[in-house]
Each structure stands twice: as structure tokens, then as C-alpha cells.
Design goal:
This protein has 280 residues and is α/β, with parallel strands linked by helices. The protein has seven helices and eleven strands. It folds into two domains: 95 residues, no CATH class; 158 residues, 3-Layer(aba) Sandwich (Rossmann fold), CATH 3.40.50.720. The chain starts with a helix and ends in a 34-residue tail after the last helix.
């Protein structure tokens, strides 16, 4: 209980820290599942998850998570990977207690209106950007920061731990935001749209000099594949994907080999038969 008490104290005092919890044990290991250790930003700890090289690596990973404002997972076989004598494997989830995860939501349309309150219930902080004052209202986005103006003309500063979501009313604005945000730090960048739209953007941005590796960091079409069609359903799929990333799992990103690229000399792309995807 002293670890949890220290974690609560850190949150109350605003002291950056990460709570490391053993979530998996296979074979012989120094601690059982649910063992916890608190790591502060300077590397000091409360509690232990077993000591030795394993604990050193977890502390190192936790400090990195605090610095990047992210969460994480670490898994290792104690003998094969670390040279310890235990013979088993352990997995730890690293929960950054320093601050809530921040979502920057570009666009205040129907999907954004359904998504923002859902994200607040999931303990994300949310900032919404849109140039349409009649859409960007407190009634539609309670408990969210609202920034009125064209985000394509004045991109906000971002942090390495930010979740960036592009769901505007304009394909032209989506493309401008995508190009600009790919040059900024982020943890997650997702964009709504069909594979045909994604392919068009890729062709245009590649012609503008964008590296394919950069584009492959984009999660698009955004959201877990649950067959979503309505704004509320799409919001659920996006929120689920963000929770998945927050819990240390990867999200599906754009695979260039799977995108239907246009014929040479144009940027028009036909949607493959049978493909249904949300559009802006």
C-alpha cells in the first residue's frame, strides 16, 4: 500500500512520476503479478519489482515515459534477455502519472462533437480547433479548450505525448494539417477518410517531398475497424484506438503497399470495390 500512497502523494503534489505494475509473469520470477513500483523523474523509486538488471531497465523506461508524457509496456525474459538466473519472463505496464493525455482535435463537426465528451470521460484532456464559431461552442464541447481560427494557417505547438486527430470539414484543410503536423512531435496522429482520400494525399505530399516513412506514421483510416458508420459509432472506434495506444499497444498505420495508388500522371484514385470507410 505504501507504493499506492506514494503515487497519490505524487499526483496531489504535482510531482512527475510513473507507476510500474507487473501485468504478466511466465515461469520463475522475483515478483508476482500486481507487484508495483513508483518511479520519479529523477530515477528515485518506492517499492520494487524484483531488483537487478530487470528493475534497472524498467526504471530507465519509466523515466523516458515521464519525459515524453507517455505510457508504456516492457517485457523481457529474465535469463535469455537479461542474463538473470530466474528463468522466467515478466511484463510491466508503465503508467505516467504526471498529467492526463492530451488530445488535439482538429475540426468541430459531427464526429468531433460525439468524440470530445467521450474522450473526457476517458480522462483525456481535449483541445478543439475550428474556424467556424457556430460549431465551436461551449454547449457542444463542454469541459474542452476551444481555439477559434484556421488551424491550417497557425499550427499549434505540440508535445511528444500528444494525440492528434484530423476530422475537419475540408479535404484541403485536412491535407494542410497532415503535412504540417507530420513535422511536429506527437504520440499518435490519426485522420478520418477513405483509403482513396489517403492515397490522394500521399501522392500529393510525396510530390511535395514528403518521405514515405513519415506518412507511414499516420493512423488512417482512423479508429478500430468495428464497421462504424454514424458519427457516434466512429467516435467510439476512435476512442477505442486511443485507449489501445495509451495502454501501450500499437495502432494500425498507413501501409503504402495496401493503398490504391493512381495511374501515372494523375492523383485521382478510385475506391476499391466493396470498401466502406468514414468520410469527412
Amino acid at each position: 500500500m505504501h507504493v499506492l500512497r506514494a503515487a497519490l502523494d505524487a499526483m496531489r503534489d504535482g510531482r512527475p512520476a510513473a507507476l510500474c505494475t507487473v501485468i504478466g509473469v511466465d515461469g520463475s520470477a522475483p515478483r508476482a503479478s500486481s507487484a508495483r513500483m513508483l518511479v520519479y523523474e529523477d530515477g528515485d523509486i518506492v517499492g520494487t519489482i524484483g531488483g537487478g538488471e530487470w528493475e534497472r531497465r524498467v526504471i530507465e523506461a519509466a523515466v523516458a515515459c515521464i519525459d515524453a508524457r507517455t505510457h508504456g509496456r516492457l517485457k523481457a525474459h529474465l535469463t535469455r534477455d537479461l542474463g538473470m538466473c530466474c528463468g522466467g519472463a515478466m511484463e510491466v505496464y508503465i503508467e505516467n502519472l504526471a498529467s492526463q493525455d492530451h488530445v488535439r482535435l482538429f475540426g468541430a463537426g459531427h464526429v468531433a462533437g460525439a468524440l470530445a465528451p467521450l474522450l473526457r470521460q476517458l480522462d483525456f484532456t481535449v483541445t478543439v480547433y475550428d474556424e467556424r464559431e457556430e460549431w465551436l461552442t461551449e454547449a457542444r464541447f463542454p469541459d474542452c479548450e476551444r481555439v477559434l481560427g484556421d488551424p491550417g494557417r497557425a499550427l499549434p505547438a505540440t508535445e511528444p505525448g500528444d494525440f492528434l486527430i484530423i476530422v475537419t470539414h475540408s479535404h484541403q484543410l485536412d491535407q494542410a494539417l497532415l503535412q504540417g503536423l507530420l513535422e511536429r512531435p506527437f504520440r499518435y496522429l490519426g485522420m478520418i477518410g477513405s483509403r482513396a482520400k489517403i492515397a490522394k494525399f500521399f501522392v500529393r505530399l510525396r510530390a511535395a517531398g514528403l518521405d514515405e516513412a513519415a506518412f507511414s506514421r499516420v493512423c488512417a483510416p482512423i479508429g478500430l475497424d468495428i464497421g462504424a458508420e454514424t458519427p457516434a459509432e466512429i467516435a467510439v472506434s476512435i476512442a477505442a484506438e486511443l485507449v489501445r495506444v495509451r495502454r501501450g499497444h500499437s495502432a494500425p498505420t498507413v501501409a503504402m503497399s495496401e493503398i490504391p495508388l493512381p495511374a501515372r500522371g494523375g492523383d485521382g484514385v478510385a475506391t476499391p470495390p466493396g470498401l466502406k470507410a468514414p468520410t469527412t
